[in-house]
Amino acid sequence: xxxxxxxxxxxxxxxxxxxxxxxxxxxxxxxxxxxxxxxxxxxxxxxxxxxxxxxxxxxxxxxxxxxxxxxxxxxxxxxxxxxxxxxxxxxxxxxxxxxxxxxxxxxxxxxxxxxxxxxxxxxxxxxxxxxxxxxxxxxxxxxxxxxxxxxxxxxxxxxxxxxxxxxxxxxxxxxxxxxxxxxxxxxxxxxxxxxxxxxxxxxxxxxxxxxxxxxxxxxxxxxxxxxxxxxxxxxxxxxxxxxxxxxxxxxxxxxxxxxxxxxxxxxxxxxxxxxxxxxxxxxxxxxxxxxxxxxxxxxxxxxxxxxxxxxxxxxxxxxxxxxxxxxxxxxxxxxxxxxxxxxxxxxxxxxxxxxxxxxxxxxxxxxxxxxxxxxxxxxxxxxxxxxxxxxxxxxxxxxxxxxxxxxxxxxxxxxxxxxxxxxxxxxxxxxxxxxxxxxxxxxxxxxxxxxxxxxxxxxxxxxxxxxxxxxxxxxxxxxxxxxxxxxxxxxxxxxxxxxxxxxxxxxxxxxxxxxxxxxxxxxxxxxxxxxxxxxxxxxxxxxxxxxxxxxxxxxxxxxxxxxxxxxxxxxxxxxxxxxxxxxxxxxxxxxxxxxxxxxxxxxxxxxxxxxxxxxxxxxxxxxxxxxxxxxxxxxxxxxxxxxxxxxxxxxxxxxxxxxxxxxxxxxxxxxxxxxxxxxxxxxxxxxxxxxxxxxxxxxxxxxxxxxxxxxxxxxxxxxxxxxxxxxxxxxxxxxxxxxxxxxxxxxxxxxxxxxxxxxxxxxxxxxxxxxxxxxxxxxxxxxxxxxxxxxxxxxxxxxxxxxxxxxxxxxxxxxxxxxxxxxxxxxxxxxxxxxxxxxxxxxxxxxxxxxxxxxxxxxxxxxxxxxxxxxxxxxxxxxxxxxxxxxxxxxxxxxxxxxxxxxxxxxxxxxxxxxxxxxxxxxxxxxxxxxxxxxxxxxxxxxxxxxxxxxxxxxxxxxxxxxxxxxxxxxxxxxxxxxxxxxxxxxxxxxxxxxxxxxxxxxxxxxxxxxxxxxxxxxxxxxxxxxxxxxxxxxxxxxxxxxxxxxxxxxxxxxxxxxxxxxxxxxxxxxxxxxxxxxxxxxxxxxxxxxxxxxxxxxxxxxxxxxxxxxxxxxxxxxxxxxxxxxxxxxxxxxxxxxxxxxxxxxxxxxxxxxxxxxxxxxxxxxxxxxxxxxxxxxxxxxxxxxxxxxxxxxxxxxxxxxxxxxxxxxxxxxxxxxxxxxxxx
Length: 1226
Prior knowledge:
This protein is α+β, with helices and mostly antiparallel strands. It has 8 domains: 5-128, Acid Proteases (Cathepsin D, subunit A, domain 1, Beta Barrel); 172-447, HIV Type 1 Reverse Transcriptase, Chain A, domain 1 (Roll); 455-624, Ubiquitin-like (UB roll) (Roll); 636-785, Ribonuclease H-like superfamily/Ribonuclease H (Nucleotidyltransferase, domain 5, 2-Layer Sandwich), CATH 3.30.420; 844-889, no CATH class; 898-943, no CATH class; 969-1123, Ribonuclease H-like superfamily/Ribonuclease H (Nucleotidyltransferase, domain 5, 2-Layer Sandwich), CATH 3.30.420.10; 1193-1222, no CATH class. The strands form 12 sheets. Strands 29, 30, 31, 32, 33, 34 and 36 form a 7-stranded mixed sheet that branches. The radius of gyration is 43 Å and the shape is flat.
């Protein structure tokens, strides 16, 4: 008996026999292994003592699955053998870790076990130890690892509670969604508000059918939606794996597992298998149960790869973060909800040992190639229009994201409805609803951004110092996974680089330098940063730092004056890159960035903690003399724009002070200038105001690239007329300590643009202008202008806004000059404490204040009567309301400020006029006609108009279409795309309906092209009913094609098109489509793909049915008599029987009478149609809200189709676009 399944361990282990070792008996014909008497089962390895060439070996491991004998090279040397005794071999051995090991040779020796001695051949391998990890097959055999062998479905009774595996900062509460007969647990956020928790639980109970607690609750996804297929590459033949031996004691437990899969319907018995895989039973940790894995490696090798793109994990993590409310869902049994294609089931066949049998998989199981791509494709088909909007999906991990709980409940309902429609089931024990933070793809996502999973941090924090090169590589692999969170990672792990360069024979050394770097890395990861998701439309700032051996960068974005981390980057420098000095490197990189239009700015001050930390982590040991003072300076900001049109010229300027105050100004230019000159005038106006208020640090923003780049010195100014403005700008800029000018998009400069257009007359509103009768560059001081033109009127000036209040919008806007020349002498006044406008009208409070101060004054009786409701406190006027509460009285300008604050300020939510009025009174303010002013402000709010509800009430009366004769006008429309398509591949139906008789024609089509449309018109309309006068269609691509227009013109047919996105304009076609769809649906219950076959039956039923408008059937209006039905022939109706008794003269008489009646029937039908049209028009016109527009009016346009979402705003997309100016009425 040749024992060829022995692996011996080195003697230095000095191991003793196992306490429960199987009895081993070696006979002349067989080897018998018996269980120990004191144990029911034996799951430990079989170790033996023996002798090799007479020398004792303490532990030899017997493995029933090994294909050869292995002996460590160290043991070979201890036996006193030399290398020249080895027989050379080219065998390459593959270990479980995938690393190839070359056998040094083959050694023959006498192996003694008990009283038996046999000659045995050993493969000598140079490894530290030859234990179970190094037991292996020949290279021709494949590895049996978790990546190559599939698993069965998971046990429902073994699923861990969510609280054990789901990481969330919110405590979870288990809720029962069942009806009380059987527990149906899942998990919700315990800290959720009570009313929202009730709504979530009610929603879960409503959609409890999309959960699955047991196998029979998972019917699987429809085969029409998705099936897993296993095509075979050309040249591969079916392969049957040889049986795999394993412990016979596992047979019973394997059979239990197979019975469980059969009962669940996941497998079925197989006969005549061509492809055959073997099973690998694996004992589950802790439970002792068996998991049956299938070795599909040969099948997978013959299957081509499915190139369906999988989602990018980093992008999905970013998209899932930044939301207030998140729900995490997990697909139940994942792959097992997808069926195998019927023709490919036999390829998944596997055999079980002994009497258990041969089976094949009915569902897609783990381990099959392309299973992940098939599952992801199914998820994308189910949620195609919701991906990236309300949810993210990576295989079976689903995240529903929202920015509010109310919206989240609606989003969950939408997702649940989609799951119910397609039969997708979730695992309730792995779901969490309504949390604010949770783990997705290994990272924690929440409103603030993305951060590292605390469990990963704990593992790294508890990680022990490496003891070999391989452990260092493992450590770096874990750390590199977190690269975006670690500042200067390359610098932190630089101490490990010498270890990575060690050769195999070199000794491993872990010194103090490596230990210090290791501890620093763990300390850093104890408080990792939170990274933000980049926001579109906002500029990025890239900070770069260079050390001697490392370069690092941090990408940030600024929001609300604070910078946030997007990602960290770092790498080691090549040797050639370390030679230039540090300043030389920075200069080189700054020059290279110019190619990408990225401006380089030297760091002058640290504006936030991010930059400070970044500098600290890129510390360079350079001795600096003197002290470095870092001062944060908040500059003035100027947003400028100019407008030049046929109505005039104007400029708009918006100023922001360092303390957050906002000032706006419109300037009317009473002289001609080009648009570029108007832009320069706006910039000069803002610069002069900055000079007057004593600003030293200024930032300017404009949407004119020419002006910005000329002032920045990037473009040369070759126009002499613009040179004057440029020189004046540079003269003022020279007086500032720091000045920066930047180009921004027009949409980011909308406020200044509105002010400029308002001043030029392009977009006129009520208000004031500052008029300049000469270019800005020629006047010196706006303060002097204000003083000279407004002598003696200082008591009527009012400060624009509330001095010292942060974030207030102090509007200096001026408009509506046309028709008000008397206001042109009221300029803008600028000073160090603010910008001031002279009073524009009488203050309504002055008479009351004067009377309350001196009741002896002679005033109007109305003032004396009103004075009883007012009082003075510290010089301010207050009004007593009906409850006796005092309300502070405001003038016109102050009322605008508070309305703006309440409606669109920090705490404003764009309330309606009535809510604004209520809030203002509640806040303690009053002025006359408050409600009227609130309505004016509310209706004039651009944001409220932009995002306002779309009024569905019709804007014009209904104009019915009446065709007074058969086949004079037809309505055409497509139905589709239809899913599922017909068995012949038809995806559309083309329907034509006659306006008078309601006769319908329809054909199924595979494609919706102009060729099929022209063929239909020719064969089904013209050749059957003659040339019509009109054809009415929608504005589809096929109907509006040049070929169709040319065809209709050649026949003299007038082609009419309805309004886009307005189905009522082609109501006849929509009505016929609706009727035909209902008829077809009722005939295809058992065979939905045969709808093309029953289409003619539906047309027949439509033609012989009485129409509600005509009160007769379309068949009778066309042919003059009713159709003969099959039932009349089968049972014999009176008119059918009597026809046989009529003579030829009788037939002539009867036909003549029928033809005479046809005209009467058609006239009667025309009367009925007119009555019906009037009835419908009367009901429709009751809802009409007429809108009359004139040329020149500014209007908003509805974004069609309704519900369209832009890429920029997504779920928050506006309902309207504009405003547009009416150019003409058609």
